[in-house]
Amino acid sequence: MIHVMVRVLCGALLLMGHAAWPQNQAGGFPSKPIRIYVPFNAGSGADSSSRFYGEMIGKMFGQQVLVENKPGGSGVLAVQATRQAPADGHTILMGSNSPAVVNAIAIKNLPYDPFKDLRPLYGISLTPVAFAVKADSPHKTIGDLIAAAKRANRPLQLGNYSAGYQLVAAWLGTASGLPVTHIPYKGGAQMLTDVVGGQLEVGVIDFGGTLELMRGGRLRVLAITGDKRESKYPDIPTMKESGFPEFETWVWSAFFVRAETPTEIVDKLAAAVHKAMTSEEGRAYQATLPSAPLMMGPKELGEFQLREYQRFKRVAELAGIQPE
What we know:
Layout: H1 2-20, E1 34-38, H2 45-61, E2 65-69, H3 76-84, E3 91-96, H4 97-106, E4 118-134, H5 142-151, E5 156-160, H6 163-176, E6 180-184, H7 188-197, E7 202-206, H8 211-215, E8 219-224, E9 250-258, H9 263-278, H10 280-286, E10 292-293, H11 298-319
């Protein structure tokens, strides 16, 4: 009888232990090195931020943080690598608007769902998109560009080098009532070279990518897609000010983890990233970047991600863009 009672008591204690375990998963986290997958080449802004904040987080946790570049497939390779790792918080994806939003609209038979397979962790950076022309272009504003195309009864000719920028270009077409001829490039550098050289009328690119040529007097930005003007470049209007009140979007990056990652671990990681970004060292690093800190926790970042998706989904539908 005593043996039976002992077994029952042990069983009850074991069940209690299992029931309590999920509430305490973050207690021993991290228990091994953390890996950050970056869907871009080394040297990119997302790569630099991953290494900078990764090192700070590693010091807080007393664990090594490894950054691994997995470019290709518009971020699909990095997402798949994240999904194949255990959902224990030791694998982080440095996501961006491409794998987290645009791919779900632009890629047919996408092998993942960014809203079901990924969990927002913390926002890192954002920058508006810019419409850039050569410095001596006759177009001084977006209105000038549109008026010239309408006078000549021709499409807007807009360069881009990713599905996200193509959607922004298509948005300008639907908002202005003009057809768009998309000029695809493999990268922003070649596209801007053609803009400066006069082979391309307008390039669609992140604002940070225009700064060097703009400072050198070789490029002009007609407008940006942010919600307000950039403090360092107050002469550049927003698209909202240019007659398109709903035209707001961003190029952004953020940390994500697998959707099944326990909340306690997500919160612990998010708190560490927040501490790194708001530290004196973090703010000094941010001051060197052409982007602004995104500074969004899991819930707010998830809401932002959904708004961006819904915005581009409407753009694609209005422009008749189908996933390929």
